[in-house]
Design a protein that fits this description.
This protein has about 575 residues and is of the alpha/beta class. The chain contains 21 helices and 16 strands. The strands form 4 sheets. It has a 6-stranded mixed β-sheet. The termini are far apart.
Length: about 575
């Protein structure tokens, strides 16, 4: 039921606002992800903002305080600890500003809320070294400015939040005009879209238009599961013995009722259903006047298919051997356990300094370990670790000081937040790619002090050119290239420089663009699903270009990117 006016926000409304925002971001994460400027398969702004907000909501729910100032502080702390990616960190800084302004307040008036938004905008801008308009920063600034103006005219919070969410939407719509790359690609800013969802959720709660049943943010267990699935993909339980599966074939058919040469039974739902019920379990039968769809677990898929032909023409048949699928899960689990043991056995002893790298791929983790990295946090291109993840690794290292290699610009801000929370001195060497991270390790000296190491490692990484080869996930135009879904792209030092119809051509063209007269070493790291012989073929291509080049090939195992290539 809609609320006509409201002049005071209590802890009850505040809690609903925070949890509604988390629920809305979770529901719209994929939509936000698809606004990624680069058409790469790891656009994750929505995922990062959703996980960050979910952490903030969990801290709010866990708090026993009733004062809004204390609840805002708990929310901000949760967002900070759960912050993932630059968008998640900026969102955490907005709520840090909220918290600063709300300190000591039992309830909030329209003016208090406007001041909190203004404070959120100010803190967010200060958190970014070079603020860029056309981003989430523009959206919070314009929303806060509108709130400040409306609060001078009314004490009605519903009216204020209506104006705020409208101003945020207008600001979001303007982002392509402020940031040329957005206009070129034809999207609005993804982080700004996430913030608009947050402010819209706030308004819906305040106005009474948010369904109470929908205000359910992910809890701790669900949050852990979301993170687990992002890291490794959802998998069936490995504890089930395939031999214990009673009905081993997942069978699906779709029948066009009353059609085809095999049709000899008029369709009767109960008759049709009862026969199938005798053949297995997990039975689902759905039909309309033209089509009947069946899902059943059975030992006799042939009987299911044959039964369907009596009622019409088969238009779909799908049979999966669930015992084989379960064995695959078990084999994968055993392989993962062996991998963990292998990497653990490579653990580098820590004396004074722990180098912490963020990377995805077993082979890449081993490369970093071999160069002296103490701990590799799984993530990077496909999953940004949270501030809390990084802080925990620092604390668990037992070192006197630490160096972080983010290997992805979207992890810079979370790494920098970890520096402020760590109890030991920490430096962030701002490596943007895996290749920069590996090269930076060439400048690491276990006996040098923190500042010297950071300087030497930063200097070393400046000498490497990096390319990533991946497949486009949508149609777009970027940097003068017309990119189609399924095209292969060569991204060189952050820019899409190559678009090709196959992965080999993309990799070859990228290498040609990177090599010059000063080049000495080319390193090819091939990813998950890429065959070694394809990488060796690429090596031969490089050697044909210039037989004076040294070429190294490594199995990185990284997801989504068939090749990481460096030229030094």
């Amino acid at each position: 039921m809609s609320v006509n006016s409201l002049t005071k926000i209590t802890n009850v409304e505040f809690g609903k606002m925070i949890n509604a925002a988390a629920a809305v971001l979770a529901a719209n994460a994929d939509k936000i992800n698809k606004l990624n400027v680069f058409p790469v398969p790891d656009g994750d702004t929505g995922t990062n903002m959703s996980l960050s907000m979910a952490s903030g909501a969990q801290y709010e729910r866990d708090s026993l305080e009733t004062e809004i100032g204390a609840l805002a502080k708990a929310t901000a702390k949760g967002l900070l600890m759960g912050a993932r990616g630059n968008s998640g960190v900026i969102l955490s800084q907005i709520f840090r500003g909220f918290s600063n302004s709300m300190a000591g307040k039992e309830t909030l008036s329209a003016r208090d809320l406007a001041d909190a938004l203004m404070s959120g905008a100010q803190v967010a801008y200060k958190s970014v070294m070079k603020p860029t308009e056309g981003t989430i920063l523009t959206v919070i600034r314009e929303a806060a400015a509108k709130a400040n103006k409306v609060a001078d005219q009314t004490d009605d919070i519903v009216e204020l939040m209506a104006a705020v969410q409208e101003a945020a939407q207008v600001a979001l719509d303007s982002t392509p005009e402020l940031l040329p790359v957005l206009k070129e690609v034809g999207v609005v800013d993804s982080g700004g879209q996430g913030l608009v969802f947050v402010l819209q959720a706030f308004y819906q709660v305040i106005s009474g238009d948010f369904n109470e049943e929908d205000i359910k943010a992910p809890d701790n267990a669900e949050l852990d599961q979301m993170v687990k699935e992002l890291h490794a993909g959802a998998q069936a339980s490995s504890s089930l013995d395939p031999a214990d599966i009673k009905y081993g074939y997942c069978t699906e058919i779709m029948v066009q009722i009353g059609k085809g040469t095999t049709y000899d039974h008029d369709f009767d739902y109960q008759k049709f259903y009862d026969y199938l019920a005798e053949l297995g379990d997990s039975l689902l039968v759905i039909n309309d006047d033209e089509i009947v769809k069946v899902h059943v677990h059975t030992e006799n898929p042939g009987k299911v298919i044959s039964w369907g032909t009596h009622f019409g023409s088969l238009v779909k048949v799908k049979v999966d051997n669930m015992r084989d699928q379960q064995q695959t899960v078990i084999d994968a689990q055993r392989a993962e356990e062996a991998r963990v043991e292998k990497i653990a056995a490579m653990q580098v002893p820590v004396s004074d300094t722990a180098v912490i790298a963020i990377a995805a791929g077993d082979g890449i983790a081993e490369l970093f370990k071999s160069l002296g990295v103490h701990t590799v946090i799984s993530g990077g291109q496909t999953m940004n670790p949270s501030t809390a993840d990084i802080v925990k690794v620092i604390e668990d290292s037992g070192a006197k000081r630490a160096i972080i290699l983010p290997n992805n610009s979207n992890i810079f801000m979370a790494a920098e937040q970890a520096v402020t929370l760590a109890e030991i001195p920490v430096e962030v060497v701002k490596t943007r790619t895996i290749q920069q991270g590996l090269t930076a390790m060439m400048g690491y000296n276990p006996d040098a002090d923190l500042e010297q190491n950071a300087a030497e490692m930063s200097e070393m990484m400046a000498d490497v050119k990096s390319a990533q080869v991946t497949q486009a996930v949508r149609e777009t135009k970027f940097n003068g290239h017309e990119i189609h879904h399924g095209d292969w792209m060569g991204i060189i030092d952050g820019d899409i420089e190559v678009v090709a119809h196959n992965v080999e051509s993309a990799a070859q063209e990228a290498i040609q663009k990177m090599i010059d007269d000063d080049s000495e070493i080319v390193t090819i790291i091939f990813g998950e699903g890429t065959k070694a012989k394809v990488a060796q073929k690429l090596k031969a291509f490089v050697e044909e270009l210039d037989d004076g080049l040294e070429v190294e090939v490594h199995d990185g195992g990284q997801p989504l990117y068939p090749f990481f290539i460096s030229v030094e």
